[in-house]
């Protein structure tokens, strides 16, 4: 447990059988009135604990939420005026809170007579399983069977750098019996969850699962993402676990249309935490179009362009952590603000039947001032 002036950071408690090793709650903070020293301490708490739940922010002004996420990355130049399609392919359907920069309204159901300027707004089917290769039946879903929606980290993967942190405030939470998340991949794995929570796994914990030989490989290797990557996979289908895609459906380069080669992103496979020095295997596998594999600085990389081989390599690593005991269901309540390290975690929403009630969430992120750094730089030749 740690404290900064009048506020306290407490690691989340694990139940028997839990193996996730990150997460903390913060009490005693008013994010509407945050001092500079508090901001520095909060930033370090997120880098250290990966995901932090700031309790009791029922009165948080959305403008203050935008100020917060920008001050957490004080060198960002993101003014919150870029179109949503620069974030990723799903966020084009989100609504920005008027006057609050890039604070977006997510949710489900009726949002109220006046939700921060949105009058009598109903969000219909924001979450659904339509892009899974074999979604649960309507009857199964209504009975409480659900899936992880889409495992990812927040990044456009083209143009702007990934946000350092994401801030998600729970304005209104659904309620009802626990749901059953099923993997539906032949493993038989399931886990229980209350409705309306966000799930996380740690890419740092994943890296620690690798053998010394695998660490040597990923430390020196990197990936290249497709131009307009979310448009590239728009017609693909997700695996039922929500992690990765299956089969074909990728657009050709001609179908993608014009793009700026300088905006195409090459990132190391391993991202280093700037505070702790921890390493994370942080690869958005669905959007990768090339792997560059090598085991040392002097070695010429083996370039992999076969999509099936790319997916097999990345999922062969990530599936190790995709087990119930390594997944944190962040226990956020109405009024809480969840802040997470976008360079060290994957996350996903989980759908629920409409009978559980409306959900209202305010989500904010920025273009990162500095992109991810790996343990070994990508050679300038590439």
UniProtKB/TrEMBL annotation:
<keyword id="KW-0560">Oxidoreductase</keyword>
<keyword id="KW-0479">Metal-binding</keyword>
<dbReference type="InterPro" id="IPR003819">
    <property type="entry name" value="TauD/TfdA-like"/>
</dbReference>
<protein>
    <recommendedName>
        <fullName>TauD/TfdA-like domain-containing protein</fullName>
    </recommendedName>
</protein>
<dbReference type="GO" id="GO:0051213">
    <property type="term" value="F:dioxygenase activity"/>
</dbReference>
<dbReference type="InterPro" id="IPR051178">
    <property type="entry name" value="TfdA_dioxygenase"/>
</dbReference>
<feature type="region of interest" description="Disordered">
    <location>
        <begin position="361"/>
        <end position="382"/>
    </location>
</feature>
<keyword id="KW-0223">Dioxygenase</keyword>
<comment type="similarity">
    <text>Belongs to the TfdA dioxygenase family.</text>
</comment>
<feature type="domain" description="TauD/TfdA-like">
    <location>
        <begin position="18"/>
        <end position="362"/>
    </location>
</feature>
<dbReference type="Pfam" id="PF02668">
    <property type="entry name" value="TauD"/>
</dbReference>
<keyword id="KW-0408">Iron</keyword>
<dbReference type="InterPro" id="IPR042098">
    <property type="entry name" value="TauD-like_sf"/>
</dbReference>
<dbReference type="GO" id="GO:0046872">
    <property type="term" value="F:metal ion binding"/>
</dbReference>
